[in-house]
């Protein structure tokens, strides 16, 4: 299996439609696409845009993930015509559109509950639909019933074939049988060969004839732990080597410092990562197999936890230093073949150093390009002492554009959480 070509050096943007604009609509969100494309974003993942259940509704607007109708648009966000206009605008700008797919459950007043046989849902002893995982505004679908498979695939095909989406981010994918995802992937790729499927899960088996990418949850938690000094960077190093042994070379891992769940329930990246936020963000662009993610507001350094069930819009923001930081990282991702993900990406070779519990120093390289990353992933000033060997020479600093010389022997002090990214053609 090979990923769609566009995904191999792509950067994904998660758009929280409810909060991305003061209006909270698809039409207003479409007006933001030009800015995102100028930033360098390649694909936009829309959080669920479907009508939300009324039964057990949380807050004033309910959970995005309590879906009443898989083939409609939430009136709060606009109309189906507005959705189509959003997709057309994104495509005109050269961007892909992924939509959120919630296959495990529906709302407790979903159309399927009223229109489909009772055995489409798991039932308790009293005949009521089972509540999955304590999400008491949802009802669990029964995947022992192949009619549910057909209903899901038909609904996905509706958005793919009739409304032009490019793929799906699949919510809690590990709660649904892998055999379903395999069949869905096979049948939907017959409709759109370059379909892209992202699993919100980390299980390795999801790459078996199903998904292109999955979440790097373990890395995300390790980055938080290192930033909070619960462990050292050698744990990240161990993760990287272990992960390479368990997944195919073409598999992508979504790497992020924030997303809608973590932002709302665990705090913004500034709360969790503190002064480590930039070095951890850089890692998500530099590590092998990465599909970097930018979440709504991160492009402005917006330090806020969005309300999950109510309107809490991103205020008007002007491009700033954080915007430029992301712009340069994204440009590096696009311009450096060594940072591509999958089988065409650059090799990952560590430069051994004298403080491996603090420093992560490595090279990504292809015949066309080399990237050298020198990172102090600790709060301590470190006296760095290491040899660069064949990697010595002239480079450009990826974030400043300045010409720099990487000496064959590095002997310098690196402030806490500091880093340099050097790049050159081969």
Automatic annotation (TrEMBL):
| Residue ranges occupied by any Glycosyl hydrolase family 13 catalytic domain in the UniProt entry | 19-333
Cited Pfam families: Alpha-amylase, Alpha-amylase_C
GO MF = hydrolase activity, acting on glycosyl bonds
The protein's matches in InterPro entries, at most eight in alphabetical order, are given as: A-amylase/branching_C, GH, GH13_cat_dom
Which terms under GO biological process does the entry name? carbohydrate metabolic process
**Taxonomic superkingdom:** Bacteria
Q: Know the name of this protein?
A: Alpha amylase, catalytic domain protein
């Amino acid at each position: 299996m090979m990923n769609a070509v566009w995904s191999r050096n792509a950067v994904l943007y998660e758009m929280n439609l409810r909060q991305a604009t003061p209006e909270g609509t698809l039409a207003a969100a479409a007006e933001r696409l030009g800015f995102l494309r100028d930033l360098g974003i390649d694909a936009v993942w829309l959080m669920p845009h479907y009508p939300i259940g009324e039964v057990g509704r949380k807050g004033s607007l309910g959970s995005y993930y309590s879906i009443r109708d898989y083939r409609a648009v939430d009136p709060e966000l606009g109309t189906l015509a507005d959705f189509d206009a959003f997709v057309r605008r994104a495509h005109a700008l050269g961007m892909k559109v992924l939509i959120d797919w919630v296959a495990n459950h529906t709302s407790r007043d979903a159309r399927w509950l009223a229109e489909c046989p009772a055995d489409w849902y798991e039932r308790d002893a009293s005949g009521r639909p089972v509540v999955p995982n304590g999400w008491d505004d949802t009802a669990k679908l029964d995947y022992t019933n192949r009619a549910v498979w057909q209903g899901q695939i038909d609904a996905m095909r509706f958005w793919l074939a009739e409304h032009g989406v490019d793929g799906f981010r699949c919510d809690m994918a590990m709660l649904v049988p892998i055999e379903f995802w395999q069949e869905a992937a096979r049948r939907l790729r017959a409709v759109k060969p370059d379909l892209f499927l992202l699993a919100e899960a980390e299980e390795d088996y999801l790459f078996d004839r199903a998904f292109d990418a999955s979440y790097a949850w373990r890395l995300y938690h390790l980055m938080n732990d290192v930033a909070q000094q619960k462990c050292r960077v050698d744990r990240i190093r161990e993760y990287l080597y272990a992960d390479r042994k368990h997944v195919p070379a073409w598999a992508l891992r979504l790497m992020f410092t924030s997303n809608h769940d973590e932002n709302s329930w665990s705090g913004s990246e500034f709360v969790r990562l503190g002064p480590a936020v930039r070095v951890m963000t850089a890692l998500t662009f530099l590590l092998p197999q990465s599909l970097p993610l930018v979440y709504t507001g991160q492009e402005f350094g917006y330090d806020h936890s969005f309300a999950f069930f109510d309107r809490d819009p991103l205020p008007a923001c002007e491009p700033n230093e954080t915007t430029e930081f992301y712009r340069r990282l994204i440009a590096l991702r696009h311009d450096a073949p060594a940072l591509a993900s999958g089988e065409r990406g650059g090799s990952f070779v560590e430069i051994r150093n004298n403080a491996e519990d603090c420093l992560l120093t490595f090279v990504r390289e292809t015949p066309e390009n080399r990237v050298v990353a020198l990172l102090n992933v600790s709060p301590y000033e470190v006296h760095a002492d290491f040899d660069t060997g064949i990697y010595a020479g002239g480079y450009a600093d990826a974030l400043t554009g300045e010409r720099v010389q990487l000496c064959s022997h590095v002997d310098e002090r690196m402030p806490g959480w500091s880093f340099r990214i050097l790049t050159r053609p081969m």
